[in-house]
Amino acid sequence: MNEFLQHSYGYMWLILALPIAAFGVMFGVTYENRRLSAWIGIIAALVADLVSIWVLLAELARPQHLQQGLGIFTDFITFADFHLTLGILADPLAAMMVVVVCSVSFLIQLYSLEYMRGEEGFVRYYAFISLFTFSMLLLVLSPNFFQTYIGWELVGVCSYLLIGHYFKKASAAAAAKKAFLVTRLGDFPFLVGIGYIFFRFHDLDFFSLASHHVYTAGLVGTSGLFVMGMLVFSGAVGKSAQFPLHVWLPDAMEGPTPISALIHAATMVAAGVYLVARAYDLFAASPAALAMIATIGAVTSLMAAIWAVGQDDIKRIVAYSTISHLGLMMFGLGVGAYSAAVFHLFTHAWFKALLFLAAGSVIHAVHTQDIWEMGGLGRRMRWTTIATLVGCVSAAGIFPLAGFWSKDGIMSGVFAMNNPAFIVVAMLITFFSALYTFRLFFVVFTGETAKRRAFDPKRIHENGPYILAPLAVLAVMAAVAGLWGSPLFGHEGFGNFIFYGQKPVVEPDNIPAIAFSLTFALLGVVVAALFYYPPLKRFSAASFNRRFPYAYAWSHNKGYFDEVYRSMFVGLALVGGRAVEWVDKHLVDGFVDGLADGYSLGARYLRRLQTGRVQAYAGGVFVGVLVVAVLAMLLGSNGALASIGGPR
């Protein structure tokens, strides 16, 4: 059996080759055939997924921490004793993430057969999903910072293309540009950080930098390591929508719902957390860097959880849930709960993809995204309701579903820090996470269907198999994936997800932490039920909002960050743009236009001198000779002007 598993490494190149080949075939060969193009992308993702599962099983059986070159790109750059390789990295961390990317991509493409049926740009949509999948896999399988950055930027380009899928819609085009530009604010420092690492260590290979303990060898001081870590972390702040670069992610909901699921569960936003996990040796060498990561993660997670409570758009609620959970992962990495944070990245992929696709199923049936225009769907969409409930329980971190097992490890790490502020924030995150999650569930699926003009609730019905089948698979994973890190596996099932063959480090269970976390999660469910579940409703959310208008307004308006950004940064950018426009129009263009006008004017008068008469030309030559002679007499060494000012 082990020999069979070891053969998987020889086929790893298919994981990258299949999605990019599908992209090329769709655009170059089958673009006019919608259904064939879609199935090419689906089958490519499925085969890549099967190979990735094969590799994961091999890594779990016996971690190899293997690197392979990519054919002719093996020595992509060679200079003196420096060799930069484009290749494939196989270790438990990469193998786990590759399974997540390929599995979610496959399920989303299958789901899209029904969800995107009849949509304009259908083949373009599928082609870009394949390119998006390839880009994320290139990043995940990268053995060095250089290849990581190539995949990093490709992921950014693909997210721009897919968020702006409905580019004829102004809001979608604006959201795509916003996502692209905001993430650039983090990508540039990240690139500087890569340059800094190379300048000081003359190496960019993850294994070399970690296995030789380069970061702790004294080549860079404490301050230098902190700056280096923060530069790299800046890229993660942008991609994973951490404070203060979180503003792009909610607007990314302008793209198709399946794309939102792909971005939030397996690709774009997961890249930042994966980067911190991959380069964790760098951050571990600087306690100040870890403290900063923990602080930013905690602030991001708590703020996003509070803002989610005030949202009315079903996709935006799930979007802020993503920001909160990503912040929680960063929080865990910052406090040293590495295995638990990576485990939460794994479990989060399943329940977040499930929640987004369930939201898409609802939107597909009721044709609105406003939760207050829904209600009562539990009676008409039973399978979607069950799937959403599983996703909500897992996302809230309630026993015994997947989210509980990964979140309790993070909470154990937070309690181990003995930092009262961190503990209070962690409990508030848990409470608000359960509150906004079950607020969504109770409003959408319980009670009576809201009355809308020209809409008959009796028309609401369950969706077809291409939508329900992915929901069923994701629901199963959201329920059972957490068992990997449960006592059934001695908590060591996920312990291999540490670095480069080191002894697995598993955060010990902290019973008070787990008890407090579960208590606050259940409290959040109870509060949501008292406000939004009709049989238990005791309080009015509308009355609460009127009694505390400022708190509600702050939550509903996302802390007014969009307004602050618009006034401070967008306003300044517009002022600067207008100044540059004035310089370009009046100085640069004016100078060039002046030269052109001067040339035209001169040419007009010169043409008048070209009469074609010999006597006129002879007269001109005579006048020219006469002028030269006069100047020579005046300016020569013995000329009349030379004597001005007295004798020499």
Task: Give a brief outline of the structure.
The protein contains 25 helices and 4 strands.
Keywords:
globular; two-stranded antiparallel sheet; 2% strand; 25 helices; two-stranded antiparallel ribbon
Please, could you describe this protein's structure?
The strands form 2 sheets. Strands 1-4 form a two-stranded antiparallel sheet. Strands 2-3 form a two-stranded antiparallel ribbon. 69% of the residues lie in helices and 2% in strands. It has helices spanning 2-6, 13-28, 34-61, 92-115, 122-140, 145-163, 170-201, 206-211, 222-239, 248-251, 257-265, 268-278, 280-284, 287-309, 314-334, 338-366, 382-395, 402-416, 420-445, 465-480, 511-532, 541-547, 549-556, 561-609, 614-635, and strands at 66-69, 77-79, 82-84, 87-90. Helix 17 runs parallel beside helix 20. Strand 2 and strand 3 form a beta hairpin. It is mostly helical and 648 residues long. The chain has 25 helices and 4 strands.
- Give the N-to-C terminal Cα separation: 107 Å
Largest sheet: 2 strands, antiparallel
Low-confidence stretches: 499-506, 644-648
Per DSSP E runs of 2 or more residues, the count of β-strands stands at: 4
Quickly count the helices: 25
Overall 3D shape: globular
Mean pLDDT: 85
Percent of residues in β-strands: under 5%
Helix content: 55-70%
> Order of SSEs, N→C?
HHHEEEEHHHHHHHHHHHHHHHHHHHHHH
Strand order of the largest sheet: 1-4
Q: Determine the structural class based on helices, strands and strand pairing.
A: mainly alpha
What would you report as the Rg, rounded to the nearest angstrom? 32 Å
